[in-house]
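Subject: sequence -> structure tokens, single chain

Hey, anyone have a minute? Need the predicted structure for the following. Not urgent.
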Amino acid sequence: MAFPRARSHLIDVRTFGLGHWLIFRAGLSRVLLGAFICGVVSAVLLRSEGSRSVDLRLPIAAYVVLAMASVVVAAAIMRSRAGTGAERVQAAFPLLLAGMFLLAGHAVAESRLAALDHSPLRLMEAGTSKLAVRLVLEEDARLSGRRVSARARVLEAGRPGEPLTSLGGEGALLQVDLPSSPGATPPGGVAPHLIRGMIVSLDAGIELLDDSAVRERLGPSYADYLWRESVHALIRAGPRDIRTEGMRGGFAGAVDGLRRSAVRHLGLGVSEEAAGLLCGVVLGDKSRLSEEAVVSFRRSGLSHMLATSGLHVAALAGVALAVLLGAGVHRRAALVASLALIAGFACLVGLGVSILRASVMAGLALLGEAFGRGRDKWQGLFLAATAVLLSNPYQAKGAAFQLSFSAVAGLFVLARPLQECIVRRTRLSTSVAGLLSVSTAAAISTAPVSFLTFGDTAVFGVAANLLVVPLLPAVMALGFAAMAAGFVWGPAAALLDSLSAIVMGWVVQVAGLFARLPTASEIGVGPLLSVAVGASVGLLLRIRRTKRGRLGLAVVGALVGLLLAVGGSFLWARVGAPLWAEPWPAVVEVRVLDVGQGNATLIRTPGGHAILIDGGPADCRLAKQLSGLGVRKLDMVVVSHPHADHFAGLSECWGSIPIFGLIDGFPPAEPGLSVMGSGEEGDKNGDITGYLKLRSELIDSGAVYTPAAEISTFELEGVQVTVLNQELSARTLGSAAQRSGGGSSLSGEELNAASLVLVVRVGGVVILLPGDAEASVLARLPLEEVSVLVVSHHGSRGAVDERRLATLSPRLALISVGEGNSFGHPHPEVIGDLAKAACPVLRTDEVGSVALLVAEEGLQLRTDRPSSAVGARD
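Reply:
Had a minute. Here:
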């Protein structure tokens, strides 16, 4: 009899202890909100991204069974003979309620997801190639290459010539493809005239985002993001298809007008760059910032300053309360006025995840303070999460939701203990220790999300935030004052903007300084592990220590590990590379990199821009070479053709060097060649499949993809790049999909012949980059004399001939080739033809990288190792 009694006692202790903890320690309201949130998240996780057209809701019977199971558990506890009746109720009641709230959250989320996924356009676009649509733009149009895009809401749609049907604002992405000939575009272009709040009508083709071809074209991650934001369709049109009908009215129209005025007032009396920064910090509008500035803020750990969040709301509320209370306003009135200001600010900048979370939490805190009610920070966080997820349950999968709520949770758990430890063990003031503890807690709590989502995080963000976050209230106060003053007197707004620009100048300098330091992915695993080791040592020493001492040892251990990471980062990440990056050239530089048996050519401009043509083979240390040259971003990457020795090295740049643009020879109609899989007959060596996978990853990471068939020339800071051989490239690569099932495959010669041929012009200097297109292909192209020839296909036999050399008349020839390669490159006949043409030759296997600097006095030549070649002809 002893065994059953012991077992019953164990169960009773655990059950009653859990019930007591749920009610008196965790708080019943927190538990129920948490259960509801878990139910919402479970519904989102069970919904497959690839099955949006499938109804995944649980059947009614499943809810009945789960509800009955909760009732049975509660009844079993109530019928137990152990404990008093009050104790049994205390144990059963919270468990029963938590189960019900979990089911309710799941049911509500499934209903909400079904409503969000409902697409009336799906029925309309079936069986028709074009639809007449009226839509309102939700953002200012953005220009990328030869394409303008903006998110919009479809107001009405229907077949051309028929009455339109109201759709209630279904989300869509509008893309306007600009023609290559300037005369075909309306005067002034398209992008400046398509602004937020504008109503436009057009007849256009509509494609749904759950179509595999559309997902591949946009990039799977971007397509999933758009779908989670209730953007269901892609609408493509030409510039002359757009018919504007004016601006929307009502409350939304008033907010649009106020926002346009705010943006205009923030730009008075300051440069365009400073105005863009002020709009980014005050309004969270990054559209006016350069890509370089955005990357700089991200690498330094300051990107949160460009996204309206709790930091902005707290700064705004603090400044408003200080001004109102200083003016003698009653405290309760000041709190209510601050709450109204926060609500107006949220409408002005848009109800994103961070601003909605911060507004709900700030509103609850201000109301509690105004009416003398207690504040529960965890309950406020759970209520904010509930509000965000009820508006759109898909946000649970988004990085914005995960980063925002993990940061706040980290502050609640870690900030105060860290502050107490810092104050006790250092001579820092309480305010400085508070700022340091908040930055550290936020960095620790968001690092896992950053790693899982972006593959990287800023290691030195805590120090950067310590230097700039105290200035945010001043920037917010000056920015709002300038926006208000602009309605009264422009010069006053210009003065305030000038003061803000001075403060922002410091922020930009700090961001630029810390952006030069390595991020976590660049440091490597070893130094980061030292942080974990240091923290672990501190935790192991917790024995026989006080509670505060344990935390102190853990923090000290982590800091010791961080110091080890800082000291070892450069040695770990840059073995064989220079300690400091090579100075950036003051003139345009075209550098043929030494990547072994492959091709990679880097173009650097004086303004800090970089273009990469081909990425070399795998394991060519491309990322280290680029980092050693000071390249922090690639404005454009051109892949001549999908042979691994021309693209595989790009995978090394993943997570360390952002790529903003990508051009290749695949046709627009066959963006993904999805029928071709690795190992299938259509791709015998896997190069095409490997490239398409890499391209998809680059697009997912933010690169804007443009098929070469849609662009003949692009220009960047005086460097003009002309793309040739697009038709043959598109035809050859496009036919690969059809040939994959027919038992034949593209040969290496066919892929080489399909290589894009690039002509780079800088002033009077012309450089020909033919990829692997040999003399027989070059003979069909409209080529003229060039200054420098990068010999195709590593100098293989047939790369050049006497006739082509006579036409091109190069003053210098460069050959990118691997030392001791098994192909015998460069071929003796090629070397002989170049010698007959009196053209000096430099080979990367002999001299390393070759840099051509286009200076006013002429072409200057630099190599990694001394060259015995004759100088270039004048």
